[in-house]
Structure formats: C-alpha cells, structure tokens
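<goal> How does this chain fold?
<sample>
Here is the protein in question

***
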Amino acid sequence: MLEQAGLEFEVRPAEGAEGPRLDGESPAEYARRRAEQKALVVSGSIPEALVLGADTVVTLDDRGVTGRIWMGAAYDSLRPAPAHRYGP
C-alpha cells in the first residue's frame, strides 16, 4: 500500500520483539501489541523516522496460533483431504 501511494520506505526487522501471547489476550490484541513493540524497537535505532509496525497472527477456532509446530497443525487442519491420482 505504501508503494502504491508513491511513498518511499525501508523495511527493517525488529529483532527481539516476538513473545508469547498474554493470558486472556485476544489474537487481535496480541497482533496489535506485537506491532507496537516492533515499532518501538525500530524507532529506538532511528528516532528521526516515522515508524509503522505491523504483525500478523493466524487463528484457528479463534485461538492465536504461533510457532512452527502450531503453524503446521493449523495448516493441516485447514487444508482439504490429500488428492489422489489414479491411472497412468
């Protein structure tokens, strides 16, 4: 969207801004909190810049799913049954 708007920007990963979901925190609240944490981490290294933080959380049955193991389980539960090929 920024590119489409003709804005110049730079993508910087926010090292150390990941963390577990807090008890009672909804997936949306978790994503919002992590986005804010990431923006704060990056803005600390470039205080003169306008920093936009973003994060995505995948949910399964309204539960936030994180980590490689959970992502695999979420993917397995969402994809259709395996396809089979018959014939030559």
About this structure: The longest strand covers residues 58-60. Residues 27-78 form one domain. The chain is about 35% helix and 5% strand. Residues 27-45 form the longest helix (19 residues).
